[in-house]
Write a structure and sequence with these properties.
single chain, 251 residues, alpha+beta, Phosphorylase Kinase, domain 1, 3 domains, 7-stranded antiparallel sheet, 21% strand
């Protein structure tokens, strides 16, 4: 099973909705794929948070009859059995999950960028695997920037912000939505930050943020480039690095 195959099954796997055969395939894949295992871990944390939220609702036994009474007799299919408690419980659980997930801040990122946000996070998770973080490992911006020459068709802005608490760790070539991108890696204490850059014809835009699967993301466009950041660093400090990057790119 490939990562692409597994990603479509992970949510159902966490919710124990897969049949035995598919569950075993996913479990086998998770044994060797750290990126997918991290996604499962994040989804399990969300699931636990929902269960422990104390916001669950126990509908009264009279709810079945009240709902039935609101449905016109002419609208009821002939021979349809009365609504059962299991069905109501499932519906209530779905509605509760939608309400709670709506509170989990995926964000102020526009809907058109949601798929890109997921790909950025997937790339960030892949980079955590051994040997995937950097192609060039250096804190020297004069080493990292020229390394990209001939590997991509644009020149990314590369600056070390060690003096501000965000030292450069290196860079690599990556792929987002089928396009080749530059990925810069920064550190903040024990946290890693991936910064993705690629050419864009979109007008300049202010930063928008998102929280996805326990990670924070930041996105903006500036000077003909799209910028995306992803990290488990808190949103406030991630925004600080974003400010440094925007100020440096504007010079």
């Amino acid at each position: 099973m490939t990562c692409e195959d597994a990603r479509g099954l992970l949510t159902a796997y966490v919710d124990a909705e897969l049949d035995v055969a598919h569950s075993l395939e996913v479990e086998k894949h998770l044994e060797t794929c750290e990126a997918c295992a991290r996604i499962v871990e994040s989804q399990e944390k969300v699931r636990s948070a929902i269960q422990a939220s104390g916001l669950s609702y126990e509908p009264p036994a009279s709810l079945d009859a009240r709902i039935e009474s609101t449905i016109p007799r002419s609208a009821k299919p002939a021979g349809r059995p009365p609504m059962s408690w299991p069905w109501l419980a499932a519906a209530a659980a779905i509605l509760l999950a939608l309400v709670l997930l709506g509170r989990l801040p995926m964000s102020r990122v526009p809907a058109s960028d949601t798929l890109i946000a997921q790909e950025v996070l997937d790339s960030h998770l892949r980079s955590m695997m051994p040997g995937h973080l950097t192609d060039v490992e250096s804190s020297d911006q004069h080493t990292v920037k020229p390394w990209f020459d001939g590997k991509i068709d644009f020149a990314p802005s590369v600056v070390d912000f060690a003096a501000d608490g965000f030292p450069l760790a290196g860079g690599r070539v990556d792929s987002i939505s089928g396009r080749t991108v530059a990925a810069l890696v920064y550190r903040r204490n024990k946290h890693l930050i991936n910064v993705y850059i690629w050419p864009s014809s979109a007008p300049n835009s202010a930063p928008t943020s998102a929280a996805l699967q326990g990670y924070n993301l930041l996105h903006w466009t500036q000077g003909g480039f799209a910028w995306w950041m992803s990290s488990d660093l808190n949103a406030e400090e991630l925004a600080q690095l974003g400010t440094h990057l925007r100020e440096s790119a504007s010079k």
